[in-house]
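agent: user wants the full assembly modeled, not chains individually. Plan: 1) parse entity lines 2) check alphabet per entity 3) run joint structure prediction 4) return tokens. Steps 1-2 passed, three entities, 468 residues total. Proceeding.
--- entities ---
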Amino acid sequence: MPELPEVETIVGYLNDVLPGKRIKDIRIFREKNILSGAPSFQKELIGESFLNVTRRAKFLIFHLTDDKVVIAHLRMEGKYYFEEKDSSQKKHDILIYDFMDGSCLHYNDVRTFGTLELSNEKDYLKTPSLSSLGKEPFLISPEEFFSLLQKKGKHPIKQALLDQSLIVGIGNIYASEILFASQVNPRTPCKDIPFEKSDLILKETKRILFEAISQGGSTIRSYHPKEGISGKMQNELQVYGQANKPCPRCKTPIRRIFMNGRSTFYCPLCQKQPGHGIIIGVTGPIASGKSTVTSYLSEKGFVDLDSDRYAHESYEDKDVKKELKAHFPGAFSRGHLDRKKLLSIISKDEKKTLILNSIIHPYVYKRTEEEIKKHPEKNFVIDMPLLLASPFLDRCDFIIGVNAPLEVRKERLKERGVDIEKALKLNSSFPIKELKKAATIYLETTGSKEESRKILDSYAFLAGNKIL
DNA sequence: ACTTGAACCTGGCGGC
DNA sequence: TGCCGCCAGGTTCAAG
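--- prediction returned ---
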């Protein structure tokens, strides 16, 4: 749940209620969360009093009498709440400190990821939890921040902001917010960030974290420890959680991608990708109207990255050929690849299809990247039937999902003169639900090409002069 | 050595 | 209404 501002808010709350409270008993309901062991935690702390609470990174540091220290991390859902009287165990309580005066402090953690650890004033900064932490954002100099980023090399900036050994306290919400405010694309390699930009990122980090602290943090799914009180920063968030909503600066739909398994939000126009223009992905089942969309964008100057073409091309690549020979010797006659044979080999066998894809796809991806590198000033359209399952989904700034009713698609296939049933069968597993969900624009091409183009024109961020 | 993914957990929410 | 799959503010550790 918490990033630096939320932890700071909780520190403030605990310092209102905790100092001077003497521990009469500690009831532990889930021993696993106490890294230093439950028995000593109870034995050493009973009889001591809380002095105050400080913060280091996202850790809470409880200072007690006799130089005792408790290092605590809330992870995703941990909450502390103080009760004047009611000391009954609540659902998901990990432990309760009972005080001499009848009040108590609950540590409650729905997902049970949070931790507690007993230490002392002399050693606590040297414990493994705290020893490898980077600098506090309010204490790091612009020069130092820049040099740390340089050392991160080609790692994306978003990842660096989350790296607690580089700079502490930033989590997944504020990382997206900071990069939006700085107008830096989250994919940008750290080494490509000039000093002025890293300086700006640090300034925005401080501004946003400071503002969040003054708003009492963000309360999104959870609540602040103090009953009924929540932070207000969630109302100020510009991009986090705003997928497909208009950018507050330019109205372009906010894009959500996954980076290192975490949701990442950015504006494709305010935070242009480093090294090239906009990338629009077009996908949908066979005969859904993808090529209408692709040619529309080509005419507007987009470079067409045609994955089918690259796939065909791959069969001529000597490394690909070598791999194919190793896995599908039956598809070769007199040293030459027979693609019809290859298709018949894989068509009945899902496992073999996967193997073929694992050989072809990397080539297609490599070729696509090469093509993007060739035209640093251009915008791109990626036309890829399997885009949703490919790593290129998250290289795209927009996704145009195309679909059409079955009858319309059949009609189109008929016009193309292909085996309708066979073509549809090959495409039967296309995940339409997923397509709708992933698409920035979901286009049902029921009518003519002209109609589809008119619809595309109506999307201001496509047809306006912002991209095109 | 490096990077990605699973694991640790429960609950809320949107979609069928 | 209920059931299912997906997702969640963090961090670590095990595979590839």
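agent: reporting back. Chain A has four domains: 4-131, 142-241+258-263, 275-302+378-468, 308-374. Residues 8 and 55 of chain A are 7 Å apart (CA to CA).
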